[in-house]
Amino acid sequence: MLQDLSKALRLNCHLVHTSSSRHQSPIVHPLSTSHPPQSHNNDNKKVNPFKLVENDLNNLYKDIRKELWTERPELEEIASYYFDGQGKAFRPMIVVLIARALNFHVNRVPDLKDSQKTVAMVTEMIHTASLVHDDVIDTADTRRGKPSVNVLWGQKKAILAGDYILSRASQMLARLRNDEVIFVLSQVLLDLVQGEFMQMGSKEDESERFSHYIHKSFKKTASLIAYTCKAVSLLSGANKNFQEAAFQYGRNLGIAFQLVDDLLDFVSSQAELGKPAAADLKLGLATAPVLFASEKFPELNIMIMRRFSEPGDVERAYEAVMKSDGLDHTRLLARKHADEALRHISPFADSPEKQALVMLAEMTLNRKK
Amino acid sequence: MSDAEKIVGYSTSYFSLRCLLSDEISNVALHLSKLNGTNHPLLETAKRLTYNGHSVMQTRGLLVLLISKAAGLNPSASDYHDSRKLAGISQRQRFLAEITEMIYSAHLIHRGILNLQPHLLLHSKIDQDLHFGNKMSVLSGDFLLASVWKGLGELRDTKVVELMATAIGDFMEGQFVIETESVNPEEIKANYWEERNFLRIGSLQANSCQSALALAGHDEDIQLKAYQFGKHFALSWQAFTEMQPYNRPFMHSSNNASIYDLMSAPVLLHTEHTGDSLACIRKTDSEGKTHIDYRKLHSIISKGKGIEKTRELIDRHTTEALDAIKQFPAIDACNALMNIVFAVREQ
Q: Which member of B139, B165, B179 has the closest CB to residue A157?
């Protein structure tokens, strides 16, 4: 689920890159004009988040592939498979923007430090390793428009290659020789796997379900973003308050993203989303729209408990969500988290990077796929 | 071994216990019963991890504790005071010993993942159960590795993180060596055995022993002695293990391929030193599939030069291991380490 954030942004990214760098056509980012952020700065529409991080992330995938070098050609091939430049590098983009915004705040120079770039690489590596493992768990056979690793090389090698990517990522972090950075990031893998475990069970107690769901969304989606934001803020030399602000920006943006993702699962068609509509229901997952809908339609509770496993459950739950205000509530909650993210970075000194962070929150809310 | 356990004192760290008692692992345990009746490797690994806690499973961690005690702590180390209360081994070194065990367990679990055909997954009950076994294997292995990552972060020593991460990477490389290797021992290069087994066995022990002394505040040259000890001890032990099936009569079992590993030291050294071809043990059936005659292999190797050469190999590595620790100050822990080495050498 979390992985679809970057999927959704790919089109936008692509559009901006081609329009600015190749055709020089006056196409402006679609979201920057149709949904101007409501606060901070009037110049927002001139800021292009993708352009701002372009120099820093230009060689991201090439540099990651270099780190994955080994004398075992097949291991290297599998480990590098998704670092083919087709990814959107959404997480590295957030991390780089936070880093630059705080570098500017602290030193009045936004330039990215090498150590911060390493954290940006590591966040993409952790994310990718978790995708490789998720695809084995969910028996997914495609990813980013190509066959998944498990389809091409089998489940065993997929898992081993995922572990290998993580081992290289931790070596890179260790070589920064900053034990505080390692300590800050020490929880993220545990959160990812605990989130996966949480997704496997349903809470008996209806009153606990929603907090369980938000908690799961934090662990599976937001934790990696939040802690890597904190790590680069530490490296920028920002004080504890600003480190916490960076963490909260990542945390709230991540949760907002997950809420929108769960919403789109109901409203987007298969063609737009690249996966069947109501895919979460089919996997037995009760996400925010269903949980909100169950307040109006208590008969959903029993279906939630049996994970929509009886014939007709998926269809009936889908109908109930559509007839309730579950989708509106979900959108509202996402908006609340996005606003909260912005509130936390409001003390940052004004800079194009800060404006880009504001735009990212808007884009997260307004994406259509 | 149990004498050695007395020397390092009662383990006062509950790190791995905490993991075993966590919601996640009890969740897995609950689901494992679904795997009964399947032959998913996770069942076997789970048994080894839970019922067999006092055999070889914990040797890796025990060696980390023993080498910690044997070398002692540098009085200038931040943990020096702490270690004096804890049988001469610091709390961080005890954590490291458990992290070492958890890395090994995670690897055992992950390498037991089966390659299942995706299109078969929904067809039969047994395929669904096997897929479920895979899912549990991924998650429980990931959970252990995530706990390792967390534990390493709490050690607050980036050098140790780097060494242990290297060990995890080597482990994966070693598994890929095995996954992609040829089945013809005759084609193998001379140092292949060392490389293969350093990656899959030696690196974890070498890097964990070095890490233990890094945590003790010792200089690089002393750390490297611990590294050499871990590496050579692990290699000698591996060679010793590989020789065992040839010291007893042939045993027929469905598991022949893992007992009579074609890339084991006795087989490789046999072909290397005799130049003999092992073509006679391979038979190709009408479908073009190759079968190995393990009984014939056993008979050739038991009578051939490979056993003697493997003994020499064990001697070489045990000598190096003993050499590496001879100047460590703590007599009792050093003796315990030497006794373990001699046990491998003289059997």
A: B179
| pTM of the complete model | 0.88
Q: What is the pLDDT of residues A223-250, one digit of tens each?
A: 999 999 999 999 999 999 999 999 999 9
Q: Does residue B20 belong to the interface with chain A, where contact is any CB pair within 8 Å? A: no
Which residue in chain B has the smallest CA separation from A137? B135
Name residues of chain B where pLDDT drops below 70.
1-39, 43, 46-57, 118-123, 254, 347
Domain boundaries in chain B?
2-346
**Residue of A139, A166, A177 lying closest to B158 (CB–CB):** A177
Within 8 A of B156 by CB-CB distance, chain A residues are 179, 183
Nearest neighbour of B114 by CB, restricted to A71, A155, A194: A155
Per-residue pLDDT tens digits for A182-195: 999 999 999 999 99
Q: Could you give the 3-state DSSP secondary structure of residue A323? A: helix
Encode pLDDT of A309-342 as tens digits.
999 999 999 999 999 999 999 999 999 999 999 9
Domain spans of chain A?
Answer: 1-177, 203-346
> One fold for both A1-177 and A203-346?
yes
CATH code that applies to domain A1-177: 1.10.600.10
Yes or no: domain B2-346 corresponds to CATH 1.10.600.10: yes
Class of domain A203-346: mainly alpha
Identify all chain A residues contacting B111, using CB atoms and an 8 Å cutoff.
156, 160
